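As a point of orientation, let us examine one representative protein, giving the amino acid sequence and backbone structure tokens.
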Amino acid sequence: MKMKDHYEDEMLSKLKALEEEYEVMMHFNNFPSGLSTISDEWVKRRISGKDIKGR
């Protein structure tokens, strides 16, 4: 059970970090109305780990 809890905590932590990064990105930039497509692709890349730098 401890390993399951550990991985759940790790996944939630990463998701929270992604959400915070997304909110900051949204706050400091003016995006076009077609943002949903752009943001969907960005989130997919971040979750897949292909766009993570320095890790």
